[in-house]
Amino acid sequence: MSGAKAMKILVSDSLSKQGVDALEKAGFTVVVKSKMPKEELFKEIKDADGLIVRSGTKVTAELIAAAEKLKVVGRAGSGLDNVDTPAATRRGIVVMNTPGGNTVTTAEHTMSMICAMSRRIPQATASVKAGKWEKDKFMGVELYNKVLGIVGVGQIGSHLTKLAQGIGMSVIAYDPYLAPERAERMGVTMLELGELFKRADIISVHTPLTPETKGIINAQSIATMKPGVMIVNCARGGIINETDLVEALKTKKVAAAAFDVFEEEPVKADNPLLALDNFICTPHIGAQTTEAQENVAVGIAEQIVDYFTKGVAKGAVNIPSVAPELLPRLQPYLTLAENLGSLQTQLCQGGIERVTVEYNGEVANLSVAPVTIAVLKGLLTPIMEHPVNYVNAPIVAKERGIEVKEIKSSDAGDFTSLLRVRVEAGKASHQVAGTLYHKKDARIIEVDQFKVEVVPEGHMLLIHNVDRPGVIGMVGKVLGDNNINIVRMQCALEKRGGNALLIIGSDTAFPSGVLDQIKSGANILSVKVANLS
Question: N or C end of the chain: which has fewer CB within 10 A?
């Protein structure tokens, strides 16, 4: 590879030898130094062309600013919590990860925790090692014919389903974005979250940590569960309210719980969960298997080699895998497409069954495959436990039973180019459309039957109302009383005296209490929020 020897790849966290070997075989100069002091890390990054990290190194904006030659950051794993991706993007640095490399091992770890918890294996081991033989003390429960409730049926949840069914468990699940056909093929019964809590013998969470999922298992939801339910969290700390769980474990309402993740890591020694005999845990090792670490190490090494030798950004989360010379022309459409997909997910309800992307006008003459992928990335990112990027978005969509169609037309009406995204979900169809002004400035121009002109950014409030006097004044007063600044506002009419759509943009989030006030107003049909920041 020409010029490879002049390129330095810094590996700042422990990485499987197979990954290092792959880089060196390609001709790169590889510097492996883990757990460096800040001063040394900043010195080493100064002349590095590539950086490979796991979860230990914090790739901050400050570190990125010190990296004068850095072109790519590779995360050997899926999580990117420790990488400031926006800062890297602003510097033109590609950020890559290896999604899916930890799927099997994390699902297996979850199943191991379920088995260990149900048979009290850690407690029995400790007893025997203490010189005791307490057979009567460690009565367990069979998993055969038990009901496993999975919250979030992504890649890990899907694999866990297979493992559980393999030992004779029945699986129920909650995932509002999973198509019914996909669930049927998996042999999973889909339920509302409240019903799942009531029926499951064991509950395992596999969602990302978002404002919506934070603390979804709490004192109130635990009260609705079966007496003696068991709970597992190998996803993200904070999905389960730890304080509420402690009380439920003490009263035996929850018979046992098993965590691989905590709200605060490393977990403090005085965390009250650690003092409970019916609680078992591991130190965030769900992805810690030899096979998984080799997979992600070799995977990220090969992606970096491909990027530097072929210009192909596989596994990139901030740019698509397209030829570098095409990217400048496609980039504005990619941004618009991702925003349209994200808006659709935040507006529609129910399992997504079909996505149709229409290309009208000049854009139809481009290679639009990456643009369709950008739509899927925007559509899936808010609902998936693990990062969705331009490489895995089509696979994730396929696994979730989502049909994807592309339609091209030379006619864009009054516009040079028009991009329309139609989503069928929950027996309803919704569409949004957008265009580019001056080939770079994105605008949303349709929301269902309403013609609009909206800048796709920031926090958006979409109010569907009857066209009657006083609605705008009421909404403005509620927002003003709550000190919420209106950045932009637009009202679109279906017909005079009919229904209207009021769209308000703000630089701050809309609290739930504000939404409740608006919903209670006269002539309000529905209120939805979306965040495109």
Answer: C
pTM of the predicted structure, to 2 decimals:
0.70
Between 103-119 and 155-166, two packed helices, what is the crossing angle to 10 degrees?
A: 50
Three-class HEC string of 2-16: CCHHHCEEEECCCCC
**Catalytic residue (choose from 54, 120, 182, 236):** 236
Distance CA(170)–CA(448), nearest Å, equals: 40
Distance of alpha carbon 232 from alpha carbon 254, whole angstroms = 11
Which residue would you say has higher pLDDT here, 458 or 3? 458
Residue 462 is which amino acid?
Answer: L
109 is catalytic: no
Residue % of the chain over a pLDDT of 70: 97
Please, what is the average pLDDT of the chain? 91
Are the C-beta atoms of 521 and 485 separated by less than 8 Å? no
pLDDT at 221: 97
Q: 284 an active-site residue?
A: yes
DSSP state of 268: P
Paired residues of 417 in beta bridges: 361
Of 284, 430, 443, 464, which one is the catalytic site residue? Answer: 284
Which tokens belong to 24? 């060196």
Given the residues 265, 291, 329, 468, select the one marked as catalytic: 265
Beta strands in 12-65 (DSSP E): 29-32, 50-53
pLDDT value at position 325? 64
Annotated catalytic, 265?
Answer: yes
**By the 8 A CB rule, do 421 and 431 touch?**
yes
